[in-house]
């Protein structure tokens, strides 16, 4: 039966189905043998128990054999046999056959809401969401009591059709009739699609109260808390997720990356090792492992991990950014430049990448382009603050100083001072402070005036280092590490050819 | 005036076979029954076309597909070179298929092209699939038989005035009794005439006549059986030769026979026995290294190749294989050293320059990368230009220049329409732009061209899943898992979809 021919009314069946299901007047050997048992065979559903038994044991082949015998005997008129056959076909992935069998069932008993629901489900799996919704509505008409499954599935259909409001409505209805964690998860998904993490957290909190031992829900909740910046709660949620399912990769990666942000690299590495068992080819895990080694100052190991991540997922700008950062540390500025430009090609709106690029260019002695890069970084940072403005401007000043543009450097340094003065809550790292003072002292010797001249800790003139050589391009401390979602696409491998 | 026959022998030693043959022909014109001259001419003719038969010995496409010599169709993991595509991570040694690409038969890509390294089809693959196998030394369709015939006709032309020996009128019985004549005659029949049937006849008679029994004839008998596609008989004769006198060629031949019968472990055992008699012999070590590579025991294979290098420091195969191993285990700098060594040795091919370029790129020697690729493009022939473009596309992707990358992949496809990897990568590039329909079309092409890759399958399943076509996604991801059972992302997707399909 062609599905397109009756797509408006998928419930209808055509006459040919029952005839194609099987040839009619054939007597099997089994039938001949069991002549004396005819009394027993009369009832059409007397072997349904056997079918059921084999089906629940997942012995699909035996089950199918019995079903075929039954259908032959009953001339295709057994609803239950057809129904189970449809389910088996579905789990084998033969959707069209499955749908055909369900249509037969529907014809045999048009008032059975369950059959209609299964038809709808088949349509849903085939990606025909609109038809599926129609079928579900029909099922609801047949069966008055509202049922959680139907609403949930309708919600899923709406979700795939990107009709978020309707999806939410149906999910709510589903939760009212029966509480399932799937419905909660779908609700949270809708909330995230609407960009409201707080709402999603609320939904998950409710779910956790009902299902306190569901590792999946717990880990999702933990990750959301991480995104919202509530590390303490996130940690406890993820911890309980791991307690219930020690092999849950999502929770483990999330915990590890949190440990990493708090500089506990050894613990984080141990966690990643566990995750590696289940996903050896995940670029984000390799990236995080690389950054762990970076934190431990094992640069070679770090580079080789990051390179593997980059090999596995060449279009991930974070990995390229990290590689650039690492090569800056290794003082391989040309390589750093390449990685950073690649990263910028992929994601041109990150001010931090531009800042690193500027540092690299400044070390390659092209001060004009370095200035361009800094300006771009500052421009981007105004729109969307992702980099510490103190570090950014300070780096600018240092680069200018290194290239003997003292007056411009002085300007920038004054700007840094203003930022520190105005933003009361700005926390300045020790390193930055030290660099700030060193540059300032060096400039003061050249008789530049600073607004904070009454500052206490003026370094005595004898201690001033000869400037350009010693002042490092203030090394940015920020790292881009956590990236939980593991959804990169596999790229065809490199194929260095044969000799 | 020097004795012409002496001169002929001299020329033969100097490997100036043409002159040797003309001299012998003169001698034979004066005295047609001069056995020495006849024998020398036969040998000179043979030497012109002689190749190491065991080295080029390769299953033809038909033999590979309709093979009946293997014992078990579903062999246990690690005991067969043909079954079982990707092994589970527990038993795998070396990089996973996600890192190191695999050939059509599911084996990891090897460092050198040699007969059977990439083409060998596994049983069950259809014939047209086997025919599609790319990049073999000979085009797969003109398998072994074709090559022999070609060599045969070529030698006929050089002799000018019809065949030197009229095979059908030979009295085998007579020649078989005379060892000095029989051996050159046999080689002539085997290598130049490619008349295996007559060669076999001669060898059988000769091996019966000679006493004490001669290992040489046994080996030749085995070679004849091997060429006739009867490895079991060949094995018998190799074994007999070993009993008479253990020789190197016998061990190598026996190993080849076992590989043909798909008993790699037996082959390794034979090689080990051979190494007891001939310690550190390069050809035995090479044989073992190849088999271990096929069995995916990478570290053992590389160790063997290193042993070879300590004996013969300019063994191209060993250098290339070790280099490739280093490349795929995240040490492009080390790989670069090996490939540079090859360049110093005078290997000058597009493939080598491509490899050098890739190694340079991944070890951040950017200034050399494009130079290498330029050189590769200049000297690449039609058979490998597609791969050069493809790899250049990888460099472009490494620099995140997607336009350039997609141009490269398109060029790769235009020079080889069967380049499945290029299709896959084009699909990924399209998917990044959000053009799902086009990318699915690319993935589908890639999938039909190379059913052994898991990437296009997974990519396609992922797209199908995202647009809600769960049914297709479910079916396709199952196929991806068949190709690479350990792929974590595919497994995740499969588990997610399974829930949809098995709940009510």
UniProtKB/TrEMBL annotation, chain A:
Keywords: Repeat, TPR repeat
Pfam families reported in the protein's UniProt record: ANAPC3, TPR_16, TPR_8
Disordered as annotated region, ranges: 1-24
InterPro entries: TPR-like_helical_dom_sf, TPR_rpt
TPR repeats: 181-214, 215-248, 283-316, 317-350
Keyword Magnesium: no
Family: Belongs to the BBS4 family.
Name used for this protein in its record: Bardet-Biedl syndrome 4 protein
Automatic annotation (TrEMBL), chain B:
Sequence ranges of the TPR repeats: 350-383, 420-453
Positions of transmembrane segments: none
Matches recorded under PROSITE patterns: TPR
InterPro entries: BBS8 (IPR028796), TPR-like_helical_dom_sf (IPR011990), TPR_rpt (IPR019734)
Keywords: TPR repeat
Keyword Ribosomal protein part of the UniProt annotation: no
Chain residue ranges for the region called Disordered: 82-125
PANTHER family assigned: TETRATRICOPEPTIDE REPEAT PROTEIN 8 (PTHR44177)
Protein name (database record): Tetratricopeptide repeat protein 8
Species per Swiss-Prot/TrEMBL record: Orchesella dallaii
